[in-house]
Write a structure and sequence with these properties.
The structure is a single chain. The chain has 6 helices and 3 strands; from the N terminus they run H-H-H-E-H-H-E-E-H. Helix 4 packs across helix 5. It has about 110 residues and is of the alpha+beta class.
């Protein structure tokens, strides 16, 4: 890897990437994120009432053999790392992959 390419990364982007990689360093969180990636085309993973999103989380938890509360915690950590968005709209909730963050990671890995 050429050092000249590394110098083109802004310090703020280095910080953002570090936060993302830290969040993804947890094996279960990485598995969850990988579970969400196939939904990238539609942009939405769950888009429905809070009860239906909880059901979606329970389904994911069951598939991953984790407690629903653990999946909820991992969703929050992915959100805090800006890897996903949780958008509340009244009684509805959308869970979306942050495409900009994914592009940042891909760009970094292609150095």
């Amino acid at each position: 890897m050429s050092n000249s390419k590394i110098h083109h990364i802004a310090p703020s982007e280095v910080e953002e990437l570090a936060v993302m990689f830290k969040a993804l360093s947890n094996p279960n969180r990485l598995r969850l994120y990988l579970e969400l990636l196939p939904h990238l085309q539609s942009g939405r993973i769950c888009s429905s009432s809070e009860e239906q999103v909880e059901s979606c989380q329970k389904e994911i938890a069951q598939r991953m053999e984790l407690a629903p509360s653990t999946v909820s915690h991992h969703f929050k950590e992915l959100k805090n790392a800006k890897l996903i968005f949780l958008k509340r709209r009244g009684k509805s909730v959308d869970i979306q992959i942050n495409i900009h963050a994914l592009k940042q990671i891909r760009s970094f890995l292609n150095l």
